[in-house]
């Protein structure tokens, strides 16, 4: 499970820092690629030489790498990692994580991390039980971080109780279980995806539509199929292709009402709904059954509001289901996306802005921000395939948090 996984290990100043050496050995043995950030006080407990020799990578401690002004890019580190693990986590670093106090490379990388973050606290019994520590642990959990609880036993102070950093073998088990949940595990899950535009007929020749090609939605369908899901892809008019598969049901529709009908029919049995379609918000009230003649200088078409498919599904969503929406914005992006996250009862909204070059309609790339009720994660410009994989990985993470194994 850990083979080729990129683990960013943060080591804090604690007597348990020596355990980081064992942890790195186990990670490397399991095939993981490990990079270590050590706080300056961690270096008093365990030498960077030990950590770099074991991890086979230089240990990073400061923002600035050398006198030439080269720097350790915390944003790159945050993007590189599949998982950030802070072990041991000291009370000091915990306090900084809880309050966003960014005075070292470890915290800057933590704040930049796009991946899941796990922490394994280590401190003396009374420090661990202190109300502020417990409150800070709760706070960082509310930010979406996972806490591997300290274990009971003899402590460096001579006292005995809860505060020992979890044993490296136990931490490895937690990591393996995390990756087993997030990789290849959409087996047995049904994913409903809406994709492409809708066309709202004016007459037999003309329609109201938009620039969506379906690329994003089809990429999401492929990413879900690759992870073993059963996919119901409800697609508006699109030239995109997807290989036939026993796990795929492709439903081609034209209008928002047709898309709604199919979505309502299949959502009940789905575990995840992903609303990536660009649904026309209005449709002509009356559809002419004959081509409208162009002899008049101007024509008026009365438009009526289309159903909101996502909102309809959001209102029916059960506790065991996840609903993912998209927000296509041109201004005030995050505020609008957060409003849609709430009003449509999404668990996650994927924001793309037409202000970003290469993002949105028709491009082969997208630049999205993943927004949940307690976290905002911006991704760089990626191919739509890569973006889809990241969205599905994140969705799996959310699903596993809802229904722990
Ligand atoms: O298809 P591509 O060319 O690859 O382009 C991809 C995309 C830009 C279409 C895609 O990334 C995207 O942003 N899709 C959502 C576009 C949109 O309609 O956004 P919105 O902010 O107007 O809608 C918010 C959410 O409600 C969306 O999940 C949308 O699917 C849903 N909705 C909106 C209106 C409606 N009547 N019914 C809906 O279900």
Question: What are the defining features of this structure?
Answer:
405 residues; alpha/beta; eight-stranded mixed β-sheet; five-stranded parallel β-sheet; elongated; binds ligand PMT
Notes on the structure:
The protein is α/β, with parallel strands linked by helices and 405 residues long. The protein is 35% helix and 23% strand. It has 14 helices and 21 strands. The protein has helices at 18-29, 42-45, 48-55, 74-80, 91-99, 105-112, 125-129, 131-142, 168-182, 215-226, 256-267, 309-316, 333-343, 384-402; strands at residues 6-11, 33-38, 83-89, 116-121, 146-147, 151-154, 160-164, 190-195, 200-201, 207-208, 230-235, 248-252, 272-275, 282-284, 303-305, 322-329, 348-353, 365-366, 368-371, 376-378, 382-383. It has an eight-stranded mixed beta sheet with strand order 12-11-8-13-16-17-19-20, with helices on both faces. Strands 2-1-3-4-5 form a five-stranded parallel beta sheet, with helices on both faces. Strand 9 (200-201) and strand 10 form a beta hairpin. It starts with 5 loop residues before the first strand and ends with a helix. The mean pLDDT is 93. It binds ligand PMT. The site of ligand PMT has 29 residues, from helix 10, helix 12 and strand 16.
